[in-house]
Amino acid sequence: MKIRTIIMFLMLLNCLISPKVFAEEASENAFKISNDSKAVIAGNGFDQQGYYTFRPDLRKCLSPLCGGFFVKAVNQTLTRCANGSRQAECYVASLNNRKNFDINSAALLQGLIKPKIYGEFGNLGIFAVKAAFSSSTDTVGAGLFVGLENNGIVCITTPCFSADQYLLNRSKIRAISGIDLGKVGASDLLLNEALSIMAKGEVLIASGVNIQTEEVAGKGITFVADQFYLPIESNSQ
Question: Using CA atoms, how far apart are residues 194 and 231, in angstroms rounded to an integer?
Fold first, then answer.
């Protein structure tokens, strides 16, 4: 009877200690992933590459030298342009929008800058659009541009690293313990749509910063968004 009592006590003690140990190990691993130069490439089919902010060219000069778009790769200091040079942003004379996305509603594009010759004007480039995203508010996104996904991990304490964060235009992934969309200021309708995307196991695109948090069983990482982006449906026939 005494042996059985001792075993039950040890099992109970293990249950009380294990959550803290697990959380501490998860926290350490999360930071190791983020600082590893050989970070993991997304293996769930999510494409982290080819994300650009853009703005129309409003200069008043002869087309196609003016009137196109300026595009900028997110999370990159310089963007590779159609002529091979690297600039803060690149001019493209036109968009190849075969899927007929509503570009006027878009704030973020996924695609590729390609060379294109415009007669005597030379190579002014074209942007081939793969996907388009609208922003939830008029605020311009800043900080890190990431993809956020529920990784299915369930914990009995905090921090719980139950989300994966994909750094766009890179090949890095890190585990995070929290996602805060509340500071974006989006409507309840759009906020619910964003939460629904993650609830379905899909990836939500957002911009913001990671902050370290003190939680019950150790240090966590919460992504605080300043903007999130919702996919625009294709209007192609």
Answer: 10
Instruction: Measure the CA–CA gap between 74 and 59, rounded to whole angstroms.
Output: 23
Residue 215, SS3 per DSSP: strand
Q: Cα separations (Å) of 228 from 39, 107, 195, 199, 232?
A: 24, 10, 11, 15, 13
Torsion, Cα of 87, 92, 98, 100 (10° steps):
90
Query: Is the four-CA dihedral 212, 203, 42, 84 of positive or negative sign?
Result: negative
Whole-angstrom distance, CA of residue 3 vs CA of residue 10: 11
pTM to 2 decimals? 0.81
pLDDT tens track for 63-89: 999 999 999 999 999 999 999 999 999
pLDDT (tens digit per residue) in 209-229: 999 999 999 999 999 999 999
Which residues touch 176 (CB under 8 Å, ≥6 apart)? 30, 161, 163, 164, 165, 210, 220, 221, 222, 223
Asked whether 179 and 163 are in contact (CB, 8 A), the reply is yes
CA dihedral over 41, 43, 46, 50, signed as positive or negative: positive
